[in-house]
Amino acid sequence: MQSFLKLLATVASKITHRQQLIQLSEVTELYETWKSVQTPNLLEVLEEFPSLKVPPSLIMVELPLLKLRYYSISSSPLVTPDQIHATITVVRYRTQDGAGPIHDGVCSTWLNCCDIGEIVPCIVRPYADFRMPDDMTLPVVMVGTGSGIAPFKSFWQHRKIDKEMHIADGNESWGTLKLYFGCRKPKENFLYETELQQMKTEGILDDYYVAFSREEGKQKVYVQDLLLKNEADVFNDIFMKEGHFYVCGNVKMASDVIGTLEKILQEQGSLSADSANEYIIKLQYTKRLHKDIFGIQDQQVEHVDDHADRMKNKPCETLSVPFVTNTFCCRGRPSVWVAGCTQQRVEKSTMCSMI
What we know:
Radius of gyration: 23 Å
Strand order of the largest sheet: 8-7-6-9-10
Helix content: 25-40%
Oligomer: single chain
Number of strands: 13
Order of helices and strands: HHHHHEEEEHEEHEHEHHEHHEHEEE
Distance between the termini: 30 Å
CATH superfamily of the largest domain: Nucleotide-binding domain of ferredoxin-NADP reductase (FNR) module
CATH architecture of the largest domain: 3-Layer(aba) Sandwich
Largest sheet: 5 strands, parallel
């Protein structure tokens, strides 16, 4: 980006604009501050420096290609063998600490505007490290926020079919399946509320705990708080019974959750900070700690949170895409790879609130 700004400086007719662009291109600290506050797109850069006379050919050559966007699959092939579902947040936020223009997520906004039956380019990418344990007697703890609940929906769907198949064979030994879910408001962002209640009633989920961080008139609660509240139970499932721990969501949340796990180890296991950290590394090495992390910039997340009331709620789509591969692993956690090479039709199904 800095090299692009330096290139733009050469086509600025106003001296002050040229000097500002050169400074931004050469002084990294100044550039990082400007980028963090403004978070500008190309149009906003042109508006900030109106003396720029940019040839269209320069833009075509210098602008990078759109990056691929991955979405975790929120359905089990045992339930919908001819479809793939994805739970997608429609990204919308303001820049400049909430006072700037509205920015819409490129891929999520486009998907939200697709008509039923429209062609969507996508492929499926397997993710072998994020899968249910082969040993069904081991406890499973799932932690997700917002659309990070997506892969866990496929988990409880898969467990439901597994139980129906194995109970018929006389096998009734199952590890516990528990979910910790975080969202903002119960009436707007509680994804799959009805389905979660049904799964608990049927005994598919042993329990689920929900943290609301923006419930009116109440203190903010995060999934980390719920984990600490149930620390003895978490310690027993993961460290005593050698269960599996899954976390899905943005980078900051995942980091905080892993830090909470270390605290639980120190409190319940009487370990030092260093020993707790070493144990977490061991969990990853033995493939009992599984992470599906979104690469979301902290600054943008903060803007969404702090200025959510200024924004109009947008729907969170559950998209169903016809199945595109025969190599899908039933216990694996693939991702939908939008803007890939295979085109498939998309059908919109259940609508949810923006998270």
